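Sequence only, no structure available. Ideas?
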Amino acid sequence: MIPHTLAAATLLIILLAAPAIARADDVFVAHEGSGASIKVATDGGTAGSGPAGGGKTCTWTVTQANTPEPFRSIWAAVPPPAGRPPGSGQWARWDCSDGTAGISWLPNSRPAVAPEVLAQEAYRQLPLPQPQIEVNPVAGREQFVNLPTWLWVSPTTWGIRSATASVPGLSATATATPITVTWTMGDGGQVVCHGSGTPYSPRYSARSASPDCGYVYRHSSARATGGMFTVTAVTTWQVTWTSTSGATGALPPITRTSQISVRVAEAQALN
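Reply:
I predicted one. Tokens follow.
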């Protein structure tokens, strides 16, 4: 009993001397549909400020967590700091990867980080794929001069993606929407398609052009390096964010890039 009492008294003194503002974060990022979580942290500073994702990693232990006794009872019994009404928050311990630790008051109404910080972290974790390039004639077969080449990206690499970063009491979701695919065709030409493009179907004739995303080569690739043109597709994603606090905003566009090589031949034999 004596060691238990001394430990409780020591912790009580530490708690009563603790600062009123928390200084560590425990942020979890959930990828849409995957159930995965990634632990990140701010670079330090007071709660609600500082960039996330860099520097030390800190973990909160709060009274509602599965905290072993006697610490849970001690924390729950300590009154809040002066000016903080009962029930307005909780005492919490934080431990950081750089060896620092402490006890601080974590207000219920004030999350550990600002919504903009969570939005930036969700932005960094957006699961955006590289475009999977599709062409017709299919890759590996020759394209032909003065005949339409169909361009599109696979539906598996298109569509809205999102990620959510959260701390107790607040979450922010970044949502990325693909807007355009910029095709650089290797012969000096470029096409900007507002959408993923239409997949080619045998119901179209060999001479029909794509209704929304295509290109016509005007000379062969015979003189290009390796006798082939390098086709580059760059998908541009528009990113916005929302939060449970009501704050919203926009973040810089994100691009993803892929390349393939195509051989372009003269088509004199075709009628």
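Residues 2-16 form the longest helix (15 residues).
Hope that gets you unstuck.
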